[in-house]
Structure formats: C-alpha cells, structure tokens
Specification:
The protein has 57 residues and is an all-alpha fold. It has helices spanning 14-21, 31-45, 48-56.
Length: 57
C-alpha cells in the first residue's frame, strides 16, 4: 500500500524559529516532525480534526 504525501515549503523568521526550536524533543526531533505536530495539534485544539471526521462519517 502506498502512502500519499504532500511536501510544502514554509519560511519562518528568526523569532518564530526560536519558538519552534524550544519544542524540539517535545513535538519531535527533526524540523519536519516538529512543524507537522504543531499543525496537527493546532487543528485538534480548534476541533477541525474531529468535526471533519464527523462530517465524513
């Protein structure tokens, strides 16, 4: 089974990146994992994930 993936490029200023760096170890070990987990956490916090799942179910 193949997994579809989408790669995106984002840019952060120095102060934004400093905040992200502070999450290393908590949200992941590499840059992509940290940013991915921040996005997923935000979506979950805003209930986008559960509301989307309910609409599809």
């Amino acid at each position: 089974m193949s997994v579809n993936k989408k790669r995106v490029q984002v840019t952060f200023n120095q102060s934004q990146w400093a905040l992200i760096e502070k999450l290393r170890g908590e949200f992941g070990e590499n840059d992509a994992d940290i940013v991915r987990n921040i996005v997923l956490s935000w979506l979950s916090e805003k209930s986008f994930i559960s509301s989307t799942a309910k609409k599809k179910g």
